[in-house]
Amino acid sequence: MSREMEALRYGILALQREGQRQLAHLLQPLGLTPSQAEVVRVVADFGPVHIRRLGGLLVCEAGSPWRLVDSLVRKDILTKQVDPDDVRRTLISLSPDGILAAARLTEIEEEFYRLFAQRLPAVPAACTEVIGRLLTDTPAGRALARRGLMPGADAEPHVRRGPSAAPDDTAS
User: Fold this and answer.
1) Alpha helix locations (H) across 2-159?
2) Where are the domains of the chain?
3) Class of 2-123 in CATH
4) Tens of each residue's pLDDT in the chain, 172 residues
5) pTM here?
6) Torsion sign over Cα 41, 36, 82, 140
């Protein structure tokens, strides 16, 4: 059994790393890393968001996403502004260039999924189930559940789509 578990462990690691390499290659025209692309995707889907909520929706960053946010602000993809309802909190939004980048990112992600689907014409439910079990009670699993990508009790009740959505009133 341990040899099978070792093969599963390293198979998942290899798949993740190979996927990141392929995605990084596709993202080169945008000048984004896969982690930065995840931040853009989440802000596009759920934004404007408070930094704490953003951190709770990300898989790429286990701690605070400030470093990623700041790098995207410097690239003029994201904007930071004081929340008018609570000056202690900062809202993260897409800039006008970020809205364009998010649209292009959607195209790149679709290309990535097409390349993936060429090797696996249909995603077996068993794969998703195994991944879900392995991610149970983990920060990454909870982030995916909040985004509606994995089953879980922490799923966001009001998923917003699009950069013009108003911020929610949940805790920052």
Assistant:
1) 2-27, 34-46, 51-57, 66-74, 96-119, 125-134, 139-146
2) 2-123
3) mainly alpha
4) 788 888 888 888 998 999 999 999 999 999 999 999 999 999 999 989 999 899 999 998 867 799 999 999 999 999 999 988 888 899 999 999 999 999 999 999 999 988 888 887 677 777 878 888 888 888 888 888 888 887 664 555 444 454 444 444 444 4
5) 0.82
6) positive
